[in-house]
Design goal:
alpha/beta; Rossmann fold; 2 domains; five-stranded parallel β-sheet; 18 helices; 12 strands; 10% strand; LPS sulfotransferase NodH; P-loop_NTPase
């Protein structure tokens, strides 16, 4: 029978108990873990010059050679320990290989941090004789802890996502399970070892038993710092909004000015285009492919790209007015019919022009009530860029390249001339188009606290990320 795995990797970090776990894996017939094989500071373990006949210099030049040597060990399943700061060139090949068993060892980040600081203080990194234990107390540094926690958490999230995308799973084990022989035997079975052990290798001792408060000089400060963390993700808001593409073909390029406008749909697109066109009178370029835009950027040193954010209330109304009021040049008639018949949004004829502000306000509020469902993918209608969140659109831009400048519509009279000066241009004045002004006036006629509240419910991330306050006419 073919074995399920050819080799394994133990994902862990410093002071998580990986030495103890490795020692116990090595106690099974047919399993061998070769330490921190891809630690940039050494190979396998401190003081070693080679591993499996491969020198540290050869490993650094081509880490996949050592990976192949571990994978192809005859008569055994070999493996190694991998931490978040080990050679990154190894991670993708390991994740891609379904014949590599993945083990994920975790420990409380606070316990790991305190244990690490004590080891650094005492110089004792491993304990085999309790009588030789060196006790220590450290000062908890909130900033240092956060940097360590963020690095490890970021790697852990990347690792778990990588496994999910590849349709793989790992054997997860916690620090507090390391002394449970049934769990260790279960891990061995996961790796393909049928014969269980009756006792654990306890040569490696726990170095710092006792509560955290006994190991820290400033426990009150530590508790206050840790209280700020949302350990259970209670403040996390699920984000199911569709990811957006870079939409490069929508970009507007001013050849003479060296400016690239990355428009946010339902923003001040017309007025910014007019401003760009007036810069030097040259025709604007649109519809470029990513390849063509990259070529243009290479040939145009000093170029600048920018986008413009609009207040979510104004932008939502612009999208509603532009796309969903019947009878307009850009009205999405099929979508209008669907929203009217299947979602109860009263998009009736005659709403344009502001002749009946109460009916217009009711229709807009109904649209805003539907928006959260649309943005979270809970409707059959395709997501429309005109009312996608601005934060999501900017993430899409970054798939190609992030903008050099993120401007606000309210700041354009001062911000655009300043932007033009960065490319050596004298800029014309900017002002909204007549159409943009008319739409803003229509919004002012119906705006109230109910509309503000509904928009905030639809775009909480935009308000949080960009700091928008209440809309002002």
């Amino acid at each position: 029978m073919r074995k399920a795995f050819e080799y394994f990797v133990l994902f862990a970090d410093m002071r998580t108990g990986s030495n103890f776990l490795e020692a116990n894996l090595n106690g099974f017939d047919g399993l061998t873990s070769h330490g921190e094989a891809f630690n940039p500071q050494f190979i396998g373990a401190p003081g070693r010059g080679e591993l499996l006949g491969i020198s540290r210099a050869a490993r650094d030049a081509d880490p996949l050679t050592l990976l192949a040597a571990i994978r192809n060990r005859p008569g055994e399943i070999a493996g190694f320990r991998y931490f978040h700061d080990h050679d990154p060139r190894v991670l993708e090949p390991v994740l891609d290989d379904a014949r590599c068993a993945k083990i994920v060892l975790t420990r409380s980040p606070v316990e790991s941090y305190v244990s690490l600081k004590i080891a650094e203080q005492t110089g004792q990194w491993r304990l085999t004789q309790v009588s030789q234990r060196k006790a220590g107390r450290i000062r908890f540094d909130a900033g240092e802890f956060e940097r360590q926690r963020a690095a490890q958490a970021g790697f852990h999230a990347e690792l778990l996502r990588g496994l999910k995308l590849r349709g793989q799973t790992a054997f997860h084990i916690r620090y507090d399970e390391l002394h449970d022989i049934d769990v260790i035997n279960g891990l061995a079975r996961f790796l393909g070892v049928a014969t269980p052990r009756t006792a654990l290798d306890r040569k490696t001792k726990i170095q710092n038993p006792g509560p955290l408060s006994d190991k820290v000089e400033n426990p009150a400060e530590m508790e206050a710092a840790l209280a700020r963390y949302d350990w259970f993700d209670l403040d996390q808001r699920p984000d199911f909004e569709t990811e957006r593409s870079a939409a490069v073909r929508d970009y507007v390029v001013s050849e003479g000015a060296g400016l690239v406008f990355m428009p946010v749909r339902s923003g001040p697109e017309e007025s910014v285009r007019r401003w760009l066109a007036a810069m030097d009178g040259a025709p604007l370029r649109e519809g470029l492919s990513q390849k063509e835009l990259r070529q243009w950027k290479r040939q145009r040193a000093g170029h600048r790209s920018f986008t413009v954010l609009r207040h979510p209330v104004a932008r939502a109304y612009r999208a509603f007015h532009q796309r969903l009021l019947p009878g307009g040049p850009e009205s999405a008639e099929t979508m209008i019919e669907n929203l009217r018949e299947h979602h109860g949004i009263p998009l009736v004829d005659g709403l344009r022009g502001g002749a009946d502000p109460e009916r217009l306000r009711a229709a807009f509020l109904a649209f805003l009530g539907w928006l959260p469902e649309a943005l979270n993918g809970q409707t059959a209608l395709r997501p429309d860029a005109h009312w996608a969140s601005q934060s999501r659109l900017l993430q899409g831009f970054a798939r190609f390249a992030p903008p050099d400048a993120i401007l606000r519509e309210d700041d354009l009279p001062e911000a655009l001339p300043q932007l033009a000066r960065t490319t050596g241009q004298t800029a014309p004045e900017w002002s909204p188009t007549d159409g943009e002004s008319a739409v803003a006036q229509g919004l002012a006629a119906i705006y109230d606290s109910d509309i503000e509240r509904a928009v905030r419910a639809a775009y909480p991330r935009d308000f949080m990320m960009f700091g928008f306050g209440p809309w002002r006419a």
